[in-house]
Design goal:
This protein has 319 residues and is mostly helical. The protein has two domains: 88 residues, no CATH class; 227 residues, MetI-like fold (Orthogonal Bundle). Helices cover 77% and strands 0% of the residues. The relative contact order is 0.14. It is found in: Cell membrane. Its main location: membrane.
Length: 319
C-alpha cells in the first residue's frame, strides 16, 4: 500500500507541473495589468511604477517568470498579493478551511441522501418510490445552485426568518452557542450544494445497483434464503458504490466550481470568493495559487478514490 501511494504521488508530479505551466501561460497572456490602478493614479510617480514592475518581474519573459514562480513555490513562497498586500499563502490558509467545511459537509450530505435513496429505488424499479426518486433527482440537477440559493434565502431568511443568509467566518462567542450559530449559517449553503450533488449521485447509485443485482452471485445469495435487505447490504451496495466513488472523485472540480457561485450568493469568505476577487483585481499570484490548490485537491481525491476501490472490492489489487 505504501509503495503504491508513493508511486501515485510521483506520477502526480508531472501532472501538477503541466497544469501549473498551462495556468501560468494563460494568466500571463490574459489582458489586464495588476498595476493598472497605479498607472491611472497621478500621485504615483512613473519611476515608482517602473520599480514595482522590475521588483515583481512583470516585464520578464514568460518562461523566466514561470521558473521563478516554480522555484519560489518549491521553497514555500507562494507569492505576494498585489491587491491585499499580504502573502498569498496567508490568504489561502485563512479562506481554505471555510471552503473545505462547506464543500466537505455538502458531499457528506449528498452521499447520505443518494446512497440509501438510490439503493431503495433499485430494489423496487419502476415502483412509485422509484418514480418519485427519479423525478426529484431530475428536478434537483436541473436547477442551478444560484437559483436554489436565492430561493432558500427568500424562503428561510426573508420570509420565515429562520436562518441567516450572510456567512460569518469569525463568529463571536464560544461553546455550544458558537457551534449552533456556525451550524445555522452553514445549513443553506451546504443544503444547496448537497442536494444538487445528491440528485446526480442518486441516478448513478440506482443504475449501478441495478447492474449488480443481475449478477450471478446475487442470484445465488437470494437462492440461499437471505433476506432482500441482507442481499442489498452485503452483496449489492459494496460493488455498486465502486463507480460512484469514481464519480465523486471526478466531480470534485465541479463541486468547487459550484462552491464559487454559492460562496458569492451567501457571502461566504472562502477560497471561491477569494478567486473571484483576485480575478477582478488582476491579482495574478492569488489566481495562480488558488487554481493550483484546486488542481492539487483533484489529484488528492483521485488517489483517495483509488484507495477506496481496494477497500470496496478486495479483488482490486493496489500494486
Amino acid at each position: 500500500m505504501g509503495a503504491y501511494i508513493l508511486r501515485r504521488l510521483l506520477i502526480a508530479i508531472p501532472s501538477l507541473l503541466g497544469i501549473s505551466l498551462i495556468l501560468f501561460v494563460v494568466l500571463a497572456l490574459a489582458p489586464g495589468d495588476p498595476f493598472g490602478e497605479l498607472a491611472a493614479n497621478p500621485n504615483v510617480p512613473p519611476e515608482v511604477r517602473a520599480a514595482l514592475r522590475v521588483k515583481f518581474g512583470l516585464d520578464d519573459p514568460i518562461f523566466t517568470r514561470y521558473l521563478r514562480w516554480l522555484w519560489a513555490m518549491l521553497h514555500g513562497d507562494w507569492g505576494f498579493s498585489f491587491a491585499s498586500r499580504v502573502n498569498v499563502d496567508a490568504l489561502i490558509l485563512q479562506r481554505l478551511p471555510t471552503t473545505l467545511f462547506v464543500v466537505g459537509s455538502s458531499q457528506v450530505l449528498a452521499l447520505l441522501v443518494a446512497v440509501p435513496v438510490g439503493l431503495y429505488a433499485a430494489r423496487r424499479p419502476y415502483s412509485l418510490a422509484d418514480q418519485v426518486a427519479n423525478t426529484l433527482a431530475f428536478v434537483g440537477f436541473s436547477l442551478p445552485t444560484f437559483f436554489t440559493g436565492l430561493l432558500f434565502i427568500l424562503l428561510f431568511s426573508i420570509k420565515l426568518g429562520w436562518l441567516p443568509f450572510v456567512y460569518q467566518a469569525n463568529l463571536p462567542g464560544t461553546g455550544l452557542a458558537w457551534a449552533w450559530e456556525t451550524i445555522r449559517q452553514a445549513i443553506m449553503p451546504v443544503a444547496v450544494l448537497g442536494f444538487f450533488q445528491a440528485a446526480s449521485y442518486t441516478r448513478y447509485v440506482r443504475a449501478s445497483a441495478l447492474d449488480v443485482a443481475r449478477l450471478d452471485y446475487v442470484t445465488t445469495a437470494r437462492a440461499k434464503g437471505l433476506t432482500e435487505g441482507t442481499v442489498t447490504r452485503r452483496h449489492i451496495a459494496r460493488n455498486a458504490l465502486i463507480p460512484v466513488v469514481t464519480l465523486v472523485a471526478l466531480q470534485i472540480p465541479a463541486v468547487f466550481g459550484g462552491a464559487i457561485v454559492t460562496e458569492q450568493i451567501f457571502r461566504i469568505p472562502g477560497i471561491g470568493s477569494l478567486l473571484i476577487d483576485a480575478m477582478l483585481a488582476n491579482d495574478t499570484p492569488v489566481v495562480m495559487a488558488v487554481t493550483f490548490v484546486f488542481a492539487g485537491l483533484v489529484v488528492l481525491f483521485n488517489l483517495v478514490a483509488d484507495l477506496l476501490y481496494g477497500w470496496l472490492d478486495p479483488r482490486i489489487a493496489l500494486r
